Fold Probable membrane transporter protein.
Amino acid sequence: MGIYLPIAELSVNMFVLLGMGAAVGFLSGLFGVGGGFLITPLLIFYNIPPAIAVATGANQVIASSVSGALVHFKRRTLDIKLGTLLVIGGLIGALIGIYVFSWLRDLGQLDLIVSILYVFFLGTVGGLMLVESWKTLRRNKSGAAPVRKSGHHNWIHRLPFKMRFRASMIYVSIIPVLGIGFFIGLLSSVMGVGGGFIMVPALIYILRVPTNVVVGTSLFQITFVTAFTTVLQATTNQSVDIVLAFLLMVGGVIGAQYGARAGQKLRGEQLRLLLALMVLAVALRLGYDLFIKPDNIFTISIADL
C-alpha cells in the first residue's frame, strides 16, 4: 500500500516501512541498541534523502528504546543513576552535533561524511567486538578459566570524582561516564543513531558494567538523547518527516517487546557476537556503496536563497 511522505516528497510502501521498524525494534530490545545504525542506512537504501533519514531515524529510535527500557526496568536490569549521567553528557553532545549537522548540510558534504562515519565506526566497533566475543566463546567451550591480571583496573579507574553505581556494581569517575554520553549525543545528531552500537561496548569494556545491566541502561540514555535530538532537528533543520516517523515507531514498539524477551535467553558473549556480525554487515554494505560507480555521475541541487 503506497503512502506519500510530505517532507521526503516521495511515495513509499507502508508495509515495507512497518517491517523496517519492527526489525529494528526487535534488535533494539535484543541488543540494547537504539537501532539507528541500521534504520538510517535502510532508509537511505530505500531512496529516502539522507538528511531526512538521519533526522527521522533518530525519532524512530525513541519508540523502540522506550519500549525496551521499560521491560528492563521491570526486571531491575537498568541503572538509573548511571543512565542519568550518560543523559546529561548526551544532551550537551547532541546540542553541539546539531550545529555540526547544519554546517555539513550547508557545505553539501553531509551524505559523504555520514557514510564515511558509518563505515569507520561500525567497522571498528564491530571488528573489536567480534574478536573479543569469539575468544570468549572459545574459552568457555574449552572450559579454560579467563586470565585475570592483578590490578585489573586501567587508567580510567584512577580518575577523580568517583561515584558508586550500585545497580552496575562499579565505582568509577563520572568523567568517562559524561564523556561517553557526550560522544554518543554528538553521533546521534550527526548520524541519526541512538549510539548503542558504541555505548554498549564502551560500558562493557571501559567501565566494566555487567552486560545484563548495560542493555537497559543504554536504552534509557538513548531514549532521552534521541528525543532531544529529534526536537532540535525538527526546529533547526525541518528534516523530520512525521508520517515516516509514525510508521517506523509503530513497527519499532512491537518489535522491541519481542527482542527484549529473546535477549533473556542468550548469554552476554552470544549477544555481543551477534551484534558484532550485524554491525559489520551494515559497514560492509555502506563501504561498498562508497566505491561503486553511481548511476548518475552528476546531480544538480538548488540551494535555498
Q: What stands out?
A: The chain has one domain: 11-141+156-291. The two ends are 37 Å apart (CA to CA).
